[in-house]
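Something for you to look into today, if you have time. I want to see for myself how the chain folds. Leave the record below and I will have a look.
***
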Amino acid sequence: MPAPKTTKGRWATRPRRSRATPEEPARPARRQAVLYARVSTKDQEREGYSIPAQKELLVAYAADKGFDVVHEFVDVETAKRAGRTAFSEMVTFLKKTRTCKVVLVEKTDRLYRNLKDWVRLDDMDLEIHLAKEGVVLSDGSRSTDKFMHGIRVLMAKNYIDNLSEEVRKGMRQKAQEGHWPNPAPIGYLNRREAGKSTLVRDPERAPLIAGVFERCAAGQSIDDIVAWVRQAGMKGKHGGVVTKSTIHSVLRNPLYAGQFWWDGVLYDGKDPTLISVTLFDRAQARLDGHHDTRVNTHEFAFSGLIRCAHCGLAVVAEIQKKKYIYYHCSRNCQKEPFVREEKLVDMFGSVLRALHLGDKGMELAREVLLDSRKSIKADAEARQQAARLRYDRLTHLIDKAYEDKLEGRVDEEFFQRRREEWDRERTALVETMQRLNKADRENLDLAVQVLEIGNRAYELYNEASVTEKRQLLDLLCSNCEMGNGRLMINLRDPWNKQRSLAEAMRNEETPLTEIKGVRSEWWAILDLNQ
């Protein structure tokens, strides 16, 4: 049998060609996203319904939209301030990564606890998906979307403030009992006993605080006192360097002598004092004697409201020829001409005039706000139902415990102790249900008021006194700068978005259907599990 033929030479290493087949198209890369969920009480987390429900919704949403969830962040906290653990970790993660700029969250108020959170994320060029509301927010979103979202954040903050009323009530009660309700100022420490926090003297810094008052009463300057406490080794409350402002705040605080101001009321304190009332009064007299007693009897509408665009210092006013008011840089940096007050009045007025929505715009906004009542009411009813069930459960427990007492299975002391606990919880539940009953009305009323303020801003501005003009501008404007004879005004949210909406409505080329694209289901404003 002949030997098989072999391939020789340079062809020996070339692979045999196969029949050409079309290559499969590469699958598009899936976008990365992070998931954020939050409950505001640990009781909700233990009940096990809120966080799992949020995560289940968001995972399904990610799968439907083609996202890969690369990280999950979950907060179970009650703090009202920004700085939640998982939220801060998420912000840090998003700042470091370049491949993930998408956040998936259930609702608006699951993501934000206050306006600082909103501003913090708004500056990061993110794409935020509010799954339950059907909203996607990014730099490319329409002005109507951003405007409505801004009002929702504002309303959510108002609702949080409303629900924190109980905390403020407790602090007010503590003040009325003669105890300082805030964290201990420098010179004191907080001590917790029997569930209550009280002030005690700081053994290291209390003698130095007394020395501060003694030196001030003896005529030493603030600079000399600061140098003395630093040499003595005193640190600030958090271990930082003691500054002039720290010492000045200490010297003006009557708490050290047995009184304190809380919510506009002066209370007699029961916490330990560090100095006598006589020494405190002597220090106040010395401080008041160093103050400039000249009084400016003229009101300037825009003083302190505007900064110089060149050097950043405040723009101040002065009267020339006893009748003309001019504004100029407080440093007189010579880069900016003096501007007459009448000109500034017109400049501010032109910005406020741009907020006017007109009858059509207000009608549209009211329509969207009223549609939102349905979503708010549904959430409120769900929480009310949970509160009612818990109330009924506590009532049953009280009745059962009473029967056990009659049968001799529990003693009188046990029964009374448990009944007091359950009655306190029932009282809190009743207050919660009452707040929920009015929450939707209050928040919708607030949103309408926000729109009305912007819509009537120019009218109110023209009719206002100097003081009222300033109050209105403080409410609506921020970061006003004057440069090259022009006034640059930044409106606060949500009025900056109201201005964009008003411009769109004045543009005849903008179809009404586009403006009306603000769907009512986006206004599931509040998850009432605050």
Summary: The longest helix spans residues 358-406. The longest strand covers residues 67-76.
